[in-house]
Every structure is written in C-alpha cells, then in structure tokens.
Write a structure and sequence with these properties.
It is built from 4 helices and 4 strands. With about 130 residues, the protein is an alpha+beta fold. A 4-stranded antiparallel beta sheet has the order 2-3-1-4.
C-alpha cells in the first residue's frame, strides 16, 4: 500500500511540475500575406521601372520574408482603378513583418525609391 501511495505522490509531483511550465506560443499554420497595390504616375520611365523592380526583388534578402512576388496587373475585368502593379510578401509571423521587415534598411530604401513615383498605394494584409 505504501508503494502505491508513493507512486501516486511521485506521479502527482511530476504532473504538477509539468503543469507549471509556460504554455507554448501558438504557431500559425497559415502564412501572413502582405499585399501592396501600386498606382504609378504616368510619367515613370522604363529605366525607373527597372530600378523599382530590382528594389522590390531585393526585399527577398530580408529575414522573415518567405516568398515574394512583384508583378503587373493583367486582369481583363477593368476594375483595377489605375493600380498597375502588385507586391506580395509572405511571412510566418506578424513579428517577422512588424519587427524585422518594416523597419529593415532594405525595405526603407525601397519605400524611398518607389513612393515618389506613385499616385496611390493600397496595403492589405491577411492570413492565408
């Protein structure tokens, strides 16, 4: 009987030690998509577009960016409202976007490069 009691006490003690540990941070199984729709000024030259494209593709170098697509609108529906390009980036965590990507010098340089050539920008983020 003492053995059973001792086993129960040790089992309870082991359970108690495990239950006081901090809960694990939940991991998203989805990817955070960061979409930027861009309406460029009509006066943007082909050379400037090439520089902007290179700048957009350089964002892949930033830690936390898991995929990137920079492309031209090809929709035949006629609802683009003048937005001609999109930039889509994928992150696993909000902190990758908020604490690494957004303040990163490569991102800040890209913003300074392309924003002066835009009429409008629309940013939309969601979990996929």
């Amino acid at each position: 009987m003492k053995k059973i009691f001792l086993i129960l006490v040790l089992s309870f003690a082991a359970y108690s030690c495990n239950s006081t540990s901090k809960p694990e941070t939940p991991v998203h199984t989805k990817k955070l998509q960061h979409i930027v729709l861009i309406k460029y000024n009509d006066s943007v030259s082909a050379n400037t577009h090439e520089e902007i494209t290179a700048g957009a593709l350089s964002l892949k170098e930033i830690e936390g960016v898991h995929n990137l697509n920079y492309s031209t609108n090809v929709s035949p529906e006629g609802f683009s409202k003048g937005y001609t390009h999109s930039l889509t980036l994928y992150f696993e965590k909000e902190t990758d976007r908020d604490e690494i990507y957004l303040p990163h010098p490569i991102h800040q340089a890209f913003v300074k490069l392309f924003v002066p050539f835009t009429e409008d920008i629309l940013v939309f983020d969601y979990w996929e």
